[in-house]
Give the backbone structure.
Amino acid sequence: MGRRLADRGLTPVVVGTEADRDAAQAIVRDCPWAVDLVGRTSLAQLASLARRAEGAVGNDTGPIFLTAALGCPTLMIMSHHTDPARSAPWGPDATWIKVLDLADLGVDAVETALRLRPKPDIGPDGEPDGGNVTV
């Protein structure tokens, strides 16, 4: 997924705790231009990232609930262990996708389900143009 986001001109950012280090390293190995912030962000810093992010993808963890609550387009990926009636993220632009085993969840399905923030229109002078600008 990181490579696909990078292909769209986005910079993937990987967050989590030290317990997520192995998974994060696998992501960064596959997508070396991703920014690895695992174990280096406070809750306030995560909130700041979420407010500016184009979107967020993750499993049933605190950062995903935070991104969703702050209005960041959020996709939670769930396995059979998660009940969406009890654990789906809440927010104006939050959604989820569920499969029995996350190993069976393909990148195509995640990419299709992920809704990113629309980019502002950029005028010929390189400045935001029109009413799509968020201040």
User: Anything to note?
Assistant: The first strand starts at residue 13 and ends at 14. The helical segments are 2-7, 21-30, 43-52, 62-69, 84-87, 107-113. DSSP finds six helices and five strands in the chain.
